[in-house]
Amino acid sequence: MRYLFLLVTFSFLALHLSAQQKDSVQKEISVPVKKDSVKPERIPLGLFKKDSVHVPRKATLRSAVIPGWGQAYNKKYWKIPIVWGALGTAAGFFVYNRKEYIDARDAYRNLMDKNDSNNYLIKPKFQPVDPEAVRQYRIAVRQYVDYSVLAFILLWGLNVVDATVDGHLKAFDVNDNLSLRVNPTYNPVSRQANVGLVFTFGK
Fold it and tell me: Higher pLDDT residue, 97 or 173?
């Protein structure tokens, strides 16, 4: 159970980081420049313009209330099945381990009461088992129940963090009027190659 929790958590983080990297690669470094200006105004490279419509806080609150709602608000619809799948897996393990714990607990009690009339209450899989083995199994599944709850809470929190980060990234936009490229040159006097950065201003 511990390794499954780590696998689900790391998978969720990897998908989130890959989505952020994809979004950042698709954005070009540019800033707006006035059309009729004689001398270009010095503007910091990568100046961001905030979107007045998209509110990152709404994505955070919505994901905190209903998992996946914030991702839908950010238009990251492909993340919704991942969020629900991760939380559903944690919830499924909780239900299964909780049932196993109750069955093992009741079986151990009936095995230790020295009353054979109650043996029919013991689940068939526990009847031929030594009482000490049943007790050890009960302790183990009780820990799995705790791990399942912890995994569910952490995955819910990751869902909120993911929606928050995507919300802030989506709230910024970059104009296409300024581009940056690398321009290699050769100096015949010094016989040395140089590499420079070229800024291209658009209309």
Answer: 97
